[in-house]
Amino acid sequence: MQEGKETQEFWDAIGGFVEVQSSEKGGDDEDFASIESMKKDLHLFQAEFDNNGNITLTPIDISNGLSRSLLQSQYCYILDCHNELFVWCGKKSPVKLKNATMAKASNIIQETNRPSWTTCTRVTEGSELAMFKTHFTGNFSEYIDTPESFDKRNKMRNKIAEKKRTRND
Q1: 78: containing domain
Q2: How many domains are contained in the chain?
Q3: Using one digit for the tens of pLDDT, what is the confidence trace for 1-32?
Q4: 3-state DSSP helix/strand/coil percent for the chain, to nearest 5?
Q5: What is the pLDDT of residues 84-121, one digit of tens each?
Q6: Residues 6 or more apart from 78 whose CB is under 8 A from it?
Q7: Residue 98: which residues within 8 A CB-CB, separation 6 or more?
Q8: Is 6 within the bounds of a domain?
Q9: In a domain, 120, yes or no
């Protein structure tokens, strides 16, 4: 199909025709997405429930940079990169907190009038995405299970299960 000769059926199939804004109206891409401006616009929040059961976000000081050691397994965090949000869920965090943090991140996008293409991605401890890890200094590998740590944890689980079995017998 030749550009400019598209049929109405074509446009309906892809969601409709939209005029492209001029560069003056749309703004300068380099101003919006410069690496330095994105680094300055990072914010990390720890999510937890207050005494009334409402989710609260506590800002974490990242003036010395982001490192994996800031993330604790019993909590969830929101990493706000302005044009994308990551919800990091610790392995020991309650399911209710994980769900509430994800909902809170979605609300942040709406309440702060972010662009419609702003993404919100859930990240699970131990399965961090490369895009998430690029915002951090250091290495995530020290937090990943090794065969030795997995075996040690498995042996401990087996001992606990055996003790429970002998108590019930």
Answers
A1: 36-139
A2: 1
A3: 677 778 888 777 777 777 776 766 665 555 55
A4: 40, 20, 40
A5: 999 999 999 999 999 999 999 999 998 988 888 889 99
A6: 44, 45, 47, 57, 85, 86, 87, 88, 101, 104, 105, 108
A7: 76, 87, 89, 122
A8: no
A9: yes
